[in-house]
């Protein structure tokens, strides 16, 4: 029995919540995952998980074993990283998550530039607009564009942008441009869903934050689709300036409600606080800060 492997499997079950999810992640059968847990419980002489067809819960012994096992596995990973760095090279696999639009538009060129300097680092990037909990252990780093930071994580600002309101010249020619926040009620609003603010748009009104609940006409969780809708004249959108930079340069979108823009919306690289930071992580974050300072 490989106890270390079984320990890893057990920890991932706790973090992902199901045997099936761990089986998919490890490219194994659910039966094999169950076998590993059974071997671990047999060797310890205790039940770690209470499992039924519908639920999976830690026993008291399971909670204690998970806490210590997680720390042990992290210590072993840190030991491997520290020892590898004695060789003088930066290498390994970096798993990162980024918002769909920011990741697709801006992170790929940044990663390409980084890997020219650090060719032994492989980067696996997942693009998702959903909240990612670093404590789940799926990612080494999560990129967030936000004004609401998660507590208890390290957050380093890699760049910033403005949060503005935009429409196409064609839309403005047909419907006019809003001049005050109250005017938005007479316009078709294009809404980006899955933000911390729900159905509200947030503005800077004379130095104070003001939230307006909008009656959206079209909504999506994809910034490119939202920008496309705006350029087609479907309505007015609210977005970080970085997301619509090219459309503004091309004249396909123009800013409205300029006086109500939020001047500084930060983009952060976030990661868990730990005693030792792998060179692949620290070098990548440092590189991103310098890269975006040069580019934007």
From TrEMBL:
Entry keyword Transcription regulation: yes
Family: Belongs to the LysR transcriptional regulatory family.
Species per Swiss-Prot/TrEMBL record: Methylomarinum roseum
Keyword vocabulary terms for this entry: DNA-binding, Transcription, Transcription regulation
InterPro entries listed in its UniProt record: LysR-type_TF_proteobact-type, LysR_HTH_N, LysR_subst-bd, WH-like_DNA-bd_sf, WH_DNA-bd_sf
Gene Ontology terms for molecular function: DNA-binding transcription factor activity; sequence-specific DNA binding
GO biological process: DNA-templated transcription
Protein name: LysR family transcriptional regulator
Chain ranges of the HTH lysR-type domain: 1-59
């Amino acid at each position: 029995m490989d106890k270390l492997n079984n320990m890893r499997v057990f920890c991932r079950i706790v973090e992902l919540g199901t045997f099936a999810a761990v089986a998919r992640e490890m490219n194994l059968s659910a039966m094999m995952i169950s076998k590993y847990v059974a071997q671990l419980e047999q060797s310890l002489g205790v039940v770690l998980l209470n499992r039924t067809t519908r639920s999976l819960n830690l026993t008291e012994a399971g909670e204690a074993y998970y806490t210590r096992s997680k720390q042990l596995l992290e210590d072993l990973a840190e030991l491997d990283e520290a020892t590898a760095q004695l060789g003088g090279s930066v290498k390994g696999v970096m798993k990162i998550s980024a918002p769909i639009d920011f990741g697709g538009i801006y992170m790929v060129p940044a990663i390409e530039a980084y890997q020219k300097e650090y060719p032994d680092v492989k980067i696996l990037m997942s693009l998702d607009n959903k909240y990612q909990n670093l404590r789940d252990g799926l990612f080494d780093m999560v990129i967030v564009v936000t004004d609401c930071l998660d507590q208890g994580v390290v957050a380093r600002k890699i760049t910033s942008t403005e949060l503005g309101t935009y429409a196409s010249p064609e839309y403005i020619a047909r419907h006019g441009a809003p001049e005050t926040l109250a005017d938005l009620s007479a316009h078709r609003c294009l809404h980006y869903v899955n933000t911390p603010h729900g159905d509200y748009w947030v503005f800077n009104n004379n130095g104070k934050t003001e939230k307006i609940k909008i009656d959206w006409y079209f909504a999506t969780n994809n910034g490119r689709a939202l920008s496309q809708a705006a350029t087609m004249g479907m309505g007015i959108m609210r977005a970080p300036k970085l997301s619509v930079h090219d459309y503004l340069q091309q004249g396909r979108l123009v800013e409205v409600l300029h006086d109500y823009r939020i001047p500084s919306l930060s983009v952060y690289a976030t990661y868990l606080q730990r005693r030792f930071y792998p060179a692949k992580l620290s070098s990548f974050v440092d590189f991103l800060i310098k890269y975006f300072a040069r580019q934007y």
